[in-house]
Amino acid sequence: MDPISPLEQALHAARALVLADLAAGEVAAADVVSMVEDSVVQRRWWVEQWPEGVAFVAGLVAQDVQDAILERSGRWPLCPVCGTGQPHALEVEPELGPDPHWVCHEAGVKVAAVGALGSATGGTPPS
Ligand SMILES: [Zn+2]
Predict the structure, then answer these.
(1) Is residue 10 predicted with pLDDT exceeding 80?
(2) How much distance in Å is there from the Cα of 16 to the middle of ligand 1?
(3) Which of 91, 83, 82 shows the shortest CA–CA distance to 114?
């Protein structure tokens, strides 16, 4: 058997992380899952052109899916930290870097790592 390449491992991990966050927001419908698959296909091509970007794919896939959902049905993921004011979406930081997190710019807080949104929305927000 061929060992799984680091690229495939990273893509698989990115897919799993974003799907976990989608499930946390209860939006893991079939069409949303296909958005994740589309993004993974595009990012595979992207990392093949630029292998140093392999550590960035989780954050990029999260942003791709966020954009795709915004075009189709609206903001995702909604901020679970701010209880008042306009509903707003979290953003991925860094936009292009390793160890991506969901951040609320209104409150100026890191809400959760990409892939760990379920623990942020299900429990008490980090202080
Ligand atoms: Zn917020």
Answers:
(1) yes
(2) 24
(3) 91
